Automatic annotation (TrEMBL), chain A:
FAD binds at residues 212, 235-236, 249-253, 266-273, 287. This is Electron transfer flavoprotein, alpha subunit. Gene3D superfamilies: HUPs, TPP-binding domain. It comes from the Bacteria. Residues 4-192 form the Electron transfer flavoprotein alpha/beta-subunit N-terminal domain. Binds 1 FAD per dimer. It comes from uncultured Nocardioidaceae bacterium.
Length: 322, 265
């Protein structure tokens, strides 16, 4: 079977769940090869093998220099040239999509982004990838294929349930030569963000989000989130007001989440917000306006003031958990 | 300096967006407008122009059907200087790679005409929302790319952007010429003023065909795209569930009962 290249999504060397998902998807289409840009630790190699990586291509990050995205894409495009894989999978983050876009141009290949599922054609293992995307604010489901070149697919978090499978994970170091044109945009500063200690927004099973209705006080939102083991999200109104960082924004210009449970509090439910949460399994809303559009899509709603409903609910949950 | 802003004409997101039987977007069903996310790019171009002084020219470029000229008009009303509309029936149904080819060829023509130093894009179109065209243009034009700027600043021939990522905030710089894209974090776009609306009437919009920019019709369009949409299906609309009011403080308990019944607790 042909190789399927999976660009490993990791933070500071520790492999993210999206990578396990992509390796799981890769096995449907061919033999997964992980491409790791960074210093490969034993832990990281172990994680990649556990999810079936037959090969691990390692790229020395120092060889790429302090430049934005382009060098990563160049190495990946070089690998596509030498390996001729059945497909390339990257995670559908801002950076992942940029890598994918550049590789697509360089290898003259079709690209599909934001895939929420990838299956082999006809359900036959080893078949060409058929992707599922959710478009128009989640109101349509679209299936697509790549018809030219190597399918380059950017995969969203939670696109598959990670399944373990032992892979040989043979390590191969990739020689790197970066052209001068990939060195055009140089990073001058990197300021890591503090971890919130909560689950990652796009990976979380439960998300509790707050909007303008919080009036700037996110404490009740965070407390409810913590009682449920949930991630915290925010509407753009809350982000624009400076109440919560942009990386927590849900919607068209923020994150698109699809958790088991989404709790919208003090959020009206504008189309641009819905674009980021409409495909959640279960939606619950708390809003003091019974006419708020969010109730049109909520499986359960409470008309009330979030500043009293949320703390009471948190207390009740803690009590029931014992 | 010369700036080209790439703007897209998109179906209004608040309308009932649909697909046609051939699985392309039904652009006639819903009114179109200048993609709101591209307004931020126009705004940044105008702010750069204001800082640079009057010899800076802002050209807006769009690839799209007849009515896409409305996206150019709006940009001109905001203050851009001139427009270029690439219009050709053969373009219909193009995917991102094909669209980027057309844009890159048009930009190459602008380059040979008066040139450009900076190409500015939005972070993503509000219909396709892939956010990949700027990176593709950087590759095709072989100039550096700095995407998803939450701020952008031009200082001589150096451009600095700030990128507010998930795990880190990154600052980067590049030397012109450059392709950049900006996010909605760069700040509200201006509304066209009455004066701007009047002035826009006198500004020129050139219309170019594929032949004008040296693209063969067979290189673009639905049948020669790099991807194919196999099927489109409307998701059943979500229906409203039970809504209770928090009378006498009963809301929280009802909420927790619901969560318990769904096994979230
Ligand atoms: C191009 C574009 C992109 C956009 N992208 C996004 C995006 O990514 N994400 C996003 O969220 N928005 C986005 N928006 C903005 C969007 O249109 C809405 O303006 C925004 O979602 C509104 O946020 P909100 O619901 O918090 O605020 P509002 O619409 O003001 O709603 C606040 C709600 O809180 C309720 N409320 C007030 N007080 C209380 C209380 N004490 N208890 C309970 N309820 C209370 C009110 O009844 C109201 O329903 C975008 C807009 C544009 C044009
Ligand atoms: N047809 C088009 N004409 C002009 N610019 C476009 C077109 N399509 C996309 N763009 C530009 O590319 C950006 C990203 O678009 P996309 O990759 O389609 O999400 C947009 O914000 C525009 O700046």
């Amino acid at each position: 079977m042909s190789e399927v290249l999976v660009l490993v999504d990791h933070v500071g060397g520790s492999v993210r769940k999206t990578t396990h998902e992509m390796l799981t998807i890769a096995r449907r289409i061919g033999e997964p090869s992980a491409v790791f840009i960074g210093q490969l630790s034993d832990d990281a190699a172990g994680a990649l093998r556990q999810y079936g990586a037959a090969k691990i291509y390692v790229v020395d990050p120092n060889a790429l220099g302090p430049y934005l995205v382009a060098p990563k894409a160049e190495v990946l495009a070089q690998l596509v040239g030498s390996v001729t894989p059945a497909a390339v999978l990257v995670s559908s983050s801002a950076e992942g999509k940029e890598v994918a876009a550049r590789v697509a141009v360089r290898t003259d290949s079709g690209i599909i982004t934001d895939a929420v599922d990838v299956q082999p054609e006809g359900g036959t293992p080893g078949g060409a990838p058929v992707t599922t995307q959710s478009v128009f604010a989640g109101s349509y489901t679209v299936q697509a294929t790549v018809t030219r070149g190597t399918p380059i697919i950017a995969v969203k978090p939670n696109a598959a349930t990670p399944e373990r499978a032992e892979g040989a994970g043979t390590v191969e170091n990739v020689p790197v030569s970066i052209s001068s044109s990939a060195k055009g945009a140089r990073m001058t500063g990197v300021e890591p963000k503090k971890a919130s200690g909560r689950p990652e927004l796009t990976e979380a099973a439960i998300v509790v989000a707050g909007g303008r209705g919080t009036g700037g006080n996110f404490e009740p939102v965070e407390a409810l989130a913590d009682s449920l083991g949930a991630a915290v999200g925010a509407s753009r109104a809350a982000v624009d007001s400076g109440w919560y960082p942009h990386s927590f924004q849900i919607g068209q210009t923020g994150k698109v989440v699809s958790p088991q449970l989404y709790v919208a509090t003090g959020i009206s439910g504008a189309i641009q917000h819905r674009a980021g949460m409409q495909t959640s399994k279960t939606i619950v809303a708390v809003n003091k306006d019974e006419e708020a559009p969010i109730f049109e899509l909520a499986d359960f709603g409470v008309v009330g003031d979030l500043h009293t409903v949320l703390p009471a609910a948190t207390e009740e949950i803690e009590k029931r958990k014992g | 300096m010369n700036i080209v802003v790439c703007v897209k004409y998109v179906p209004d997101a608040t309308g009932d967006r649909r697909f046609k039987p051939d699985n392309t977007v039904d652009r006639a069903a819903v009114d179109g407008l200048l993609s709101e996310l591209d307004e931020y790019a126009v705004e940044q171009a105008l702010q750069i122009k204001e800082k640079q002084g009057d010899d800076t020219e802002v050209t807006v470029l769009t690839v799209g059907p007849e009515r896409a000229v409305e996206a150019i008009r709006k940009s001109l009303q905001m203050g851009a200087d001139r427009g270029v509309h690439v219009l050709d029936d053969a373009i219909a149904g193009s995917d991102a790679l094909a669209t980027s080819l057309v844009l890159a060829q048009a930009l190459a023509k602008v380059r040979s005409a008066g040139g450009w130093d900076l190409v500015l894009c939005g972070m993503g179109s509000t219909d396709g929302a892939m956010g990949v065209i700027p990176a593709m243009l950087s590759e095709r034009l072989d100039v550096p790319g700095a995407t998803f700027g939450s701020s952008i600043e031009v200082d001589g021939d150096t451009v600095r952007i700030r990128r507010d990522g998930d795990t880190a905030t990154v600052t980067a710089e590049a030397v012109l010429p450059l392709v950049a894209s900006v996010t909605d974090m760069t700040g509200e776009a201006r509304y066209p003023s009455f004066k701007g609306i009047m002035a826009a009437k006198k500004k020129t919009v050139e219309t170019w065909s594929l032949a004008d920019i040296g693209v063969e019709p067979s290189q673009v369009g639905l049948s020669s795209s790099w991807t194919a949409v196999e099927s489109t299906e409307a998701r059943p609309p979500r229906t409203a569930g039970e809504v209770v009011s928090d009378e006498g403080g009963s809301g929280a308990k009802a909420l927790v009962d619901f969560l318990t019944s769904k096994k979230f607790i």
